[in-house]
Design goal:
By secondary structure, the chain is α/β, with parallel strands linked by helices. It has 22 helices and 23 strands. The chain has an eight-stranded parallel β-barrel with strand order 1-2-3-4-5-6-7-8, surrounded by eight helices. It has an eight-stranded parallel β-barrel with strand order 9-12-13-14-15-16-17-18. The protein has a five-stranded mixed sheet with strand order 19-20-21-22-23. Helix 1 (56-69) crosses helix 2 (81-96). The protein is globular, with a radius of gyration of 26 Å. The chain starts with 43 loop residues before the first strand and ends in an 11-residue tail after the last helix.
Length: 667
Amino acid sequence: MSGTSSQRKTAQNKSHTIQTSYSMFKTRVVKIGDVPLGGRYPIRIQSMTTTNTMDTKVIVEQSVRIIEAGADYVRITAPSLKEAQNLEVIKKYLRKRGYGTPLIADIHYTPNAALLAARIVEKVRINPGNYADKRKSNAQEYNDIEYNSELERIRERIIPLIKVCKEYGTALRIGTNHGSLSDRILNRYGDTHTGMVESALEFVRICEGEGFYDIVLSMKASNPIIMVQANRLLVNKMREEDMNYPLHLGVTEAGEAEDGRIKSAVGIGTLLDEGIGDTIRVSLTEEPEHEIPAARSLVKRYENRDTHDSIAPIVNDNKLTKHYNPFSYSKWETRSISNIGGSNPPIVVADLSHKDSISPTDLVAAGLIYSTTENKWDFSDLTCDYIYSGDTPVKFKLTGEKSIICNYRLWLTINDPENVYPLFPCEEYFSSDRPSDKMNFVSVDFKVLSGEFLNMIKNDKTVVLVFETSNKHGMMEQRRMFFEQVIDDCHIPVIIKRNYDVESKEELLLHASIDCGGLFIAGFGDGIWINNQCPANLKNSQSHISYINDISFGILQATRTRITKTDYISCPSCGRTLFDLQETTLNIRKATDHLKGLKIGIMGCIVNGPGEMADADYGYVGTVPGKITLYKKSEVVRKNISSDKAVESLIDLIKENGDWVEKETRS
């Protein structure tokens, strides 16, 4: 293949098994100390220390907190030879205190550190984009001879590490990051998940050539869509080449708080639902032990998942694959009814049906704002689009595109049903003699979503379907329902509804992010409707309504289907970090969280910073202690700014480029 940009290899192999039943991708077992990975072993959980590797006491204490929170592995950065040497001291102290948890050395740029670390710890992680390959500003075109010559150079650089790993029984993670692909890979494959996969497999083939197979692979990106597609493609390519290496899953630079957990759950959970993944990390810009409960909640969900209710297999595979490609995003086009479907962003439904009466406070919890100066209801970017009241009347009139959904029998009693629409169980819709002539919501599950049902309803231009499921493997069952629409060439808009009875807020957030987010990143869904009927949460009704409203918009933001706030791409910190990431992220968020649609990257060091935040509008990157470099897109615009003035300088940069707006104040 020629190396010219016009002949880059960008075509995707669409061969992919479309599962309907839960089945793990069977991987080989890789020994990592006394905690083996892959095969039939449980999905392992890990985190990474965030403190200076040379500060032995602090890093040991942090490692202990990670282990006691429930991690199976602890990863520690070794940016140079001295840090690699100190891994032996750290390991000694942990073992002396009775902690036998395997340690993983994280290596970037420094093969000599990897060679030493492989003699000390149980596993070494290297990044193909910067272990032997480099990313330079003067990128060149590679012809086949030059490309193969570079591969041979890489082979010579990695073989010493392979030999040490074989001698000491050390496992090797080959971890590709979307933001740190080399010039050579970018030239040949472009900035694509195809390039991510090939970058890792080049190293795998060299390892196999040396008879080394204790390998773990990872495909990470800050964008959950790219991360999911890259891992699917990796599994597909491994099947083609008769490989079965375990996979480590994570959304890198996911951020903090709810947004970071939602992004991570969308990416990791979508793949776990498909049986992909042997170990996970939920990367958060928080203390590393805070990552473990979220990771444990994700993993626990897949215990005994194979006992789920059966889901009908795909019959017309050819017709489906004509319109659905798991390796690329394409929105399934539906017709527009009012503000649902078509080119409209997905709508949010707030479920208030548990209320005996609905008060103004409930509406405020659902994102509405009461303007005292104008004596009317107002809306923000985080105001729900529809309120579902069930059998409870709403005595407040809404205007604009904010509307009420109620059960059909209540709707029949309303004298003036302007901006109020009925919800039908599917069998009741066909027997009703007076549906709305504007819009009707019809609730269906997979049992009734047969070809006959779709044929009866597909040309009704007033219908919006509400997909429901009680299946333990619910995301896959609802995806199968969307596949039925695709196969039958049906373009009715669909609201994804999920019903829960969950007391833990974090568990609700994680599960809803998987169940709904996994469908949105596949190009399916015109709305989201989350219902949680846990009595403990319903006692504090307004808080409960507000939380669900927030995570609904958060899921749409994470899947990039509806942008309503600032998007932060912030790394979780590690021993390479050159400033206080948590405090800095908080300060930047306070100053910029009103800049809807703006993407801001906050990176602790230069390793993955410029690449991972290439999708960001602005970047804030630590370069040396106490100094920050600011980026506009991928271009450096200001260097060596004192960290105590850097946030202010970032705001000035945003203003200079015309992307700043003042915060609104409401009376």
